[in-house]
């Protein structure tokens, strides 16, 4: 007769408790990198150099000295975003004009990065107001800002290229009394100028770092008709 199968080993309650408390190896580790990417801040730029990283006291002193400019940068960006947000509900165009007038490319990336995720918010007026900020982002040497500019400019092209081209091909007659058509034509002229400029910038930057070069090539291809 075959030998009886061995009884399964008994697992004690204490073993089960320890197993439940032990984190799974498949669980993702907490990583602050995505949050920093959303802020479009490179924390390494605030870290001490390798040469100064040999002594713990030197590291602490260096980090302490860099904490002030780091927080100043964040505070400045927060202040500018609050200004844009306050103006947004009453006059969206003016809000984006204030953003471009600030000259703060980091704040431009913060605001434009959010708008790029919300295509229904865009209209021709908003695209014209955002154009200076988009051009500043495309020209930025910081990778995350340039990529943000590529994403938003691609969206603008997809949403409005047909409108721009069709209006430029059929301008309003001279002396027309259709003011809304004339205003739309002027906006299309302004947006066409930006998209042409964006294509020139994208072609000039196809030799940059891998991510930026790839994004710029795609943008240049999208803007071929300009």
What key attributes describe this structure?
mainly alpha; flat
Write a short abstract of this structure:
By secondary structure, the protein is mostly helical.
Word description of this protein:
The chain is an all-alpha fold and 226 residues long. The protein is 68% helix and 0% strand. The longest helix has 33 residues, at 56-88. It is flat. The chain starts with 12 loop residues before the first helix and ends with a helix. Residues 8-36 have low confidence and may be disordered.
**Tally of individual helices:** 9
Beta content comes to under 5%
Oligomer: single chain
Residue stretches low in confidence (pLDDT < 50, at least 5 long) are 8-36
Distance between the termini: 87 Å
What does the largest sheet look like?
none
Question: What's the pLDDT, averaged over the residues?
Answer: 80
Form type? flat
**Fraction of residues in helices?**
55-70%
Secondary structure: elements and pairs:
Elements: H1 13-21, H2 33-39, H3 56-88, H4 92-102, H5 105-115, H6 124-139, H7 143-169, H8 179-204, H9 210-222
Helix pairs in contact: 3-4, 3-5, 4-6, 5-6, 5-7, 6-7, 6-8, 7-8, 7-9, 8-9
